[in-house]
Amino acid sequence: MMDAPVVVIGGYGPGLGQGLAEQFSSVGYQIVALSRQGREFDGALSLATELSDREQVVDAVNQILDAFGRIDVYVHNVASLHIAPFLETPAEQFEAVWQASFLSAVHMAQAVIPPMLAQNSGTIIFSGATAAIKGGKNFAAFSSSKFALRALSQSLAREFQPQGIHVAHVILDGLMNGTSSIDRFGGKKETSILPAEAASAFLSLVKQPRSAWSQEIDIRPFSEGF
Fold first, then answer.
1. Which residues are 74's β-sheet partners?
2. Is 53 in contact with 4 (CB distance < 8 Å)?
3. Using the 8-state DSSP alphabet, how is residue 102 labeled?
């Protein structure tokens, strides 16, 4: 298994994180799950990592490279949702959301890109949200972090795709089944995004040939207006 491809899931947890682990595992990938809590997936290398802490990120990536010698796919599935009127959102809250959602992506990208460059291949996928293209009322902190993440993905794609690294951004336009957002916003399974089916779209991005790479796709339930 040492030569099997490796996918690293940043922000592993219930919902899409688990769906990604199951989907990639089913096609032969070795799974690495990164989360603050060190959540485990059967057969995966699970590391408790604060992704907004550069030193912890570098240490985690070094452990992954020591264990497997490669990183083929990195999926950044991290977000910090804060909902409040703008005048009731202090600057410190903006900073906390940006660090959790955006700075973590910067740290991880800077850590995984060098080994991908060395192997002249790799895929980085950022999980976005409706807020990445539409700043909603009371979502100023969250939306600004997701706008920034989208801009980062575009910039990295333009810089590194010519060097063999596929960078993509996935707009998740809807509630993800199996997460707390379903209860928080009154969602239902039949009108939410199913993790396994969303994960299949992520896998399809990884499988794209170099002559036909997508930089951005959007995913939404059939019932979602847009």
1. 8, 124
2. no
3. I
